[in-house]
Each structure stands twice: as C-alpha cells, then as structure tokens.
Design brief:
Pfam families: BatA. With about 650 residues, the chain is an alpha+beta fold. The protein has 12 helices and 37 strands. Strand 25 and strand 26 form a beta hairpin. The mean pLDDT is about 85.
C-alpha cells in the first residue's frame, strides 16, 4: 500500500494522548453500606470487570476511528507504481503515406488513431506521442484526442534507426523514470536501413504492426518526354503495380479540370505498363496524370509542368574543341568558345559552366574570376595541356581549396573503369558494360585532390575524370588532354554523356517535376533586386524559400515548406515567373513489409503486440491505481457506530 500524502501519517502519533489519559485516569468509588456483605462483594467484582472492559472497547474503537480517518486523508492506494519513480509512455505513430492503405476498418492510420482514443484512459502517467513530422509530450487525454482526430499524413518518412534515436532523445532528459515505448507502423522494408537497427535496444519496446487487406497497389510512377515537334510533345507515362496483374487500368490526362486525354494501361501479367499521351507544344503546360486505385490514393495522381526550355550558358576557354560544339547544340545551350587572349572577363559570371580547355598557363586574373564564379554556383571543367604549367594550375586548385597536381606521367594507359553509381553516369547506361573497346591516353597528370570522386578510371586505378563537390558548385578534373594525338577518348561513346551532363548538372533549372523531400534546390533563370525576394504559393499557402543570388540566376532551397503534391507558383514582385510541379515520393508505394518476429527474436526488451487493445490493457494494468481512502472513511464511520452501540447497549 502506498500513500499520496504520506506526511499526514505523522498525525497517528497523537493517538498516544487518549491512551495516556485512559491509563492515568483516577476514579473514586463511593462506599454504600449493605446488610449482606458477601452478596455485595460479588456484585462489585462483576461491575468493575465490565466497566474496565467497556472502557477499553470504547478506547479501542475511538482510536481505530481516528486512525482510519487520518489514513483516509493521506489517500492510500494500491498500484504497481511507486512514489519514487515516474512512468512515461512514448508512442511512435507512423503517419507516412503507406499508412493510407485500407485495413479491415478503413485507412490504417485513422483506425489506429481512433483505437488509441478509445482505449487510452491513463490519467496518472505521462503520455508522449511523435509522428514523422511532429512531437507531442506529456499530453492530457483531451489534448491527445484532439491531436489524433486531426492527424495528417506526412510525406516525410523515418527509418527505424532514426525512430530509435528520437525515442532516446525524448527519454534522455528524464531521470528516475521507467519507460514504455510503443512503435506502431506497417514496418515497410524501405524504412529499415539494415538488420542491426534494434541491436542496441535497452528499454522496453512494444512493436505493433498494422497490415492492409491487400498488398497490391497500382500507381503512376513517373513520366518523361519521348520526343518533340513544333506543334506537339509525346509523353511516356510509367504505371506500375506492386504485383503481377492482368488488369486494364484507365488513366486520364488533365490540364486543371479539363480532360485532355484518356487511355488504358494494360498489364499483361506484369508489374509495368507504359502509356503515351500527346500534349500541345506551347510555352506552358501544367498537366496531371490520374488513375483510380482504392488501396492507396496518394500515388494515384502525378503532376508535371512543361515550360519554355531555359538554355544553359557554356563557355569554352582555350582550344576550340570541335567536339564540344557538337555536344552543346543551340536548341539546349548557349555555347561560346574564346581563346584566352580574346576573353571578355565580364562574361564569366554570366555562365553556368566554364571549360578550361588545354591552357598552358592560367593567369592570376582568370584564377580570381573563376574563384568568384565558383562561389556563385558556377561549375568548372579543367582539361590540361600537353605542356601545362603545373604551378599555375595549382594556384587555381589552391584558391578553390581542393588539392594539387603532382606530376606528369608519360605512360600509356587504357580507360577501363566506369563509376556507374556516380550522379553523372547513373542514368546513362541501361546495364553495366564490361566488354567495350577501351579508349586510351599516352600520358596523364597525377593529382592529389581532396574529397574527390572518380567518374572514370585508368587501368592502374588512377582517376581519369574526377568530380569534387564544392560548397556551391562542382569542379571536374580531366587527367589528360583530349586531342586526338594524345587520346582517343573523344571517339569513344563515353564523351557525349559525360560532357553533356557536365552542363546539365551545372544548372538545376526547372524539371518536369520534383519529388517532395527534406531539401530541394532549384535554379531559376531570373534576376531580382538586392532587397527583393521570390515567393512560392499555391491555393493553400504562401512562403518565402531560402534563396541565393548570383550573376545570372537565383537558387532557391525548399526544405520542409511543401507537404502536399500539386502545382506551386514562383512570384517575383507579384509576377508569376515559374510554375513548379511537386509529387510525393513513390518509395512509400512499395507494399513490402518486414517480419517483426525476426526483429524481436534476438532482443529480450522487444515484445510484439497484436492490437491496440492489448497494448493499452497492459499499460492500464501497469498504471492502474486502486484508491483505498473511501474504505478507510467507511471503517472510521463503522468504528464510531460501534462505539455508540457499546455506550448504549453495553450495560454495567
């Protein structure tokens, strides 16, 4: 038995007072003459015994009555809780879009939220809850109900390792506390980084897995432009299913509320279907691809925006490089080439990509301009000359703080290794090639570059083309000249995708669509005043993104501002300069789940629950308090009643 106010129990010490009074109470007896002394003595003995017993009974009942009253005011209770410890229950509720799947009683997230509201009756423990985008600590029952009723799906998703870190952060600041942690999720495979996520769990964790009625999901995965003419654009739309199906799924193309086209996506016992739409080749087209699938709804719509293409400015300094003009064509690029002595330094800051093509020496003025150009977000490609002045090249590299060139190695090497995972190459090849005809170089410059990532390597494992990510830009180093007398690289099929992507990656100009994520950077070909800002808005909200101004563009950084798919307009001085389309990440569409029994089998602190009822039954049982003060009040009244009965019916 425990007490809410144990300090009141000190009042029990005052019960010694009536005992002392009783023990020292003196009572004089009056003598009465009587003829039969023997008979009188018998009566006297009986009376004294009865009187003494009665007084002891009255004393006992009074003391018990007062004792019960004192104990009642100290509020005794029975519970597994102890006064010395706090008990904290923390619930992670997965509100990612995969929880939109339908269970037996509707959407998984909404059903779980309703069950928590119905089953939670904890009034004596701290309850905290966090989702993928919000956290609530020490919620009262009514506040918890309000938050769960209004819970929204989030495009953010947390892997299980991050969930455990957040649990630790929430609990680390509490001392002398016992924790009960509950993870409620569908436990998708994509949310598990590795098999060791739960290896170091030391606190008690309950896992509750919710499962949809069906694991099949049909979604609009992505789209791309197949071809263009002066009047129309051919769009390919990729529709996927998580399982092999034979269904025909109607798919619509809309512009606003206007239906532009409708077709059928045919799955011939497969998971993939590609359909075609034709849209007019106008300056701007904001389209929406839609299908109907009842299991998951967030991936039924796909938004895209086609706008007038923005050309990328590319400047070649040095050797003319005739292959470059064939790669950087007029329909996509503003390409120009200048010899060093004819270079207009004022034009440098207006470029997106600059190529230093086989310069023998890099002058100090150019180094200073390139340093400023790089800080403003411009990308640089350096191709050395056969007689490069290494000292001047190193001055450029040192100004960018990326390392040095060491020496010239006059040995022929083949170019044999492609880094297929590099962002510059990752989308170029459908499959990895191992038997192509290797290009070669007659010599190369050995370098020592910091934070460098090889794109293509020689057969001796030295890097041929290297990329370095700077704070606001990229730097690319080509280890040897590309003239035909020194290398046949420009005759290989690699040269086009590599140099084309040098330019394409130099500017993050508006794409057909963007994926909602923790951070998205977009370059806008516009200029604004020093004190002006760009604003982004849709029909629901407006916000000002982070923005960085440079000579020829504005780079905006969107963090957690966008949580809903659709179209967002970029305004400058109340003028709409761009429309951006955002879509939810399709990773949540993959309805493959982790077997949580495998998680729990190797850790004694992890248990599995089958339902919300089971979870809260255990919590409520652990936190249940049986108050006893009413019983002690009743006993106090009972003892007073017994005293009254003794006084009335116990005859001397």
């Amino acid at each position: 038995m425990q007490f809410k106010h144990p300090e009141i129990l000190y009042a029990l010490l005052f019960l010694i007072i009536p005992i002392i009074v009783h023990l020292f109470q003196l009572q004089r007896f009056v003598k009465v003459p009587f003829t039969n002394v023997k008979f009188l003595k018998n009566i006297e003995k009986q009376t004294r015994k009865s009187a003494r017993l009665k007084k002891w009974l009255i004393l006992l009942t009074r003391m018990l009555a007062f004792a019960c009253l004192i104990i009642a005011f100290s509020q005794p209770f029975l519970s597994e809780f102890t006064i010395e410890k706090n008990y904290n229950t923390t619930i992670y509720l997965d509100n990612s879009y995969s929880m939109q799947a339908k269970g037996e009683n509707g959407e998984l997230l909404k059903t779980i939220a309703q069950n928590i509201i119905e089953k939670n009756n904890q009034n004596n423990t701290n309850l905290s809850i966090f989702t993928n985008d919000k956290s609530y600590t020490n919620l009262e029952t009514q506040n918890l109900k309000n938050e769960l009723i209004n819970i929204k799906y989030s495009p953010n998703r947390l892997d299980l390792n991050t969930v455990l870190l957040k649990l630790n952060n929430l609990n680390n600041n509490k001392t002398n506390t016992l924790y009960k942690n509950i993870l409620i999720s569908d436990f998708q495979n994509i949310n598990r980084k590795n098999s060791n996520d739960f290896t170091n769990v030391i606190a008690s964790i309950n896992l509750l897995k919710v499962t949809p009625k069906t694991s099949n999901n049909i979604l609009v995965d992505s789209l791309y432009i197949e071809s263009k003419t002066t009047t129309e654009i051919i769009i390919k739309v990729i529709v996927k299913s998580t399982n092999n199906i034979t269904d025909n799924v109607p798919v619509s193309l809309l512009e606003g509320s206007k239906l532009i086209g409708k077709t059928t996506s045919k799955f011939n016992n497969s998971k993939l279907s590609i359909i075609t739409f034709t849209v007019p080749n106008s300056d701007n087209f904001n389209g929406q691809i839609s299908l109907i699938d009842e299991n998951l709804e967030f991936d039924n719509d796909f938004f895209f925006s086609i706008s007038k293409p923005e050309k990328i400015n590319v400047l070649n300094i040095g050797s003319s490089g005739s292959f470059l003009s064939k790669i950087y064509t007029k329909n996509e690029f503003n390409y120009s080439s200048n010899e060093l002595q004819n270079l207009n330094y004022n034009s440098i800051q207006n470029q997106h990509l600059i190529l230093l093509n086989e310069l023998e020496k890099i002058p100090t003025e150019l180094i200073n301009s390139l340093n400023e150009f790089s800080k403003n977000g411009g990308d640089i490609v350096v191709i050395p000359s056969v007689n490069s002045n290494i000292e001047s090249y190193n001055r450029l590299l040192n100004s960018l703080q990326i390392g040095t060139i060491n020496s010239k190695i006059a040995t022929e090497h083949k170019i044999t290794t492609i880094n297929y995972d590099h962002p510059l190459i990752i989308d170029v090849f459908e499959k990895r090639v191992s038997n192509f005809q290797y290009p070669k170089t007659s010599f190369f410059y050995k370098s020592n570059l910091r934070n460098a990532t090889p794109i293509i390597k020689f057969d001796n494992n030295e890097s041929f083309i290297t990329s370095i990510n700077l704070e606001n830009s990229n730097f690319y180093w080509v280890a040897s000249p590309l003239k035909n007398e020194f290398s046949d690289f420009i005759q290989s099929p690699l040269v086009v995708p590599v140099f084309y992507n040098f330019a394409k990656n130099s500017s993050k100009f508006s794409k057909l669509y963007y994926v909602i994520g923790p951070e998205t950077k977009i370059d806008l070909l516009t200029s604004i005043g020093k004190d002006d800002v760009l604003k982004i808005s849709n029909e629901d909200r407006e916000f000002i993104p982070l923005q960085q101004l440079s000579q020829n563009k504005v780079t905006i950084t969107i963090k957690d501002n966008i949580i809903k798919s659709g179209f967002y307009n970029v305004f400058s001085n109340n003028k709409n300069i761009k429309t951006l389309a955002f879509n939810y990440n399709r990773a949540e569409s993959d309805l493959n789940y982790t077997d949580i029994n495998l998680i729990a089998e190797n850790n004694k602190n992890i248990s599995i629950s089958s339902s919300i009822s089971e979870v809260f039954e255990e919590i409520n049982k652990q936190g249940k308090i049986n108050w006893l003060f009413k019983w002690f009040l009743a006993f106090s009244a009972l003892f007073l009643l017994i005293e009254i009965l003794i006084l009335k019916y116990f005859n001397i």
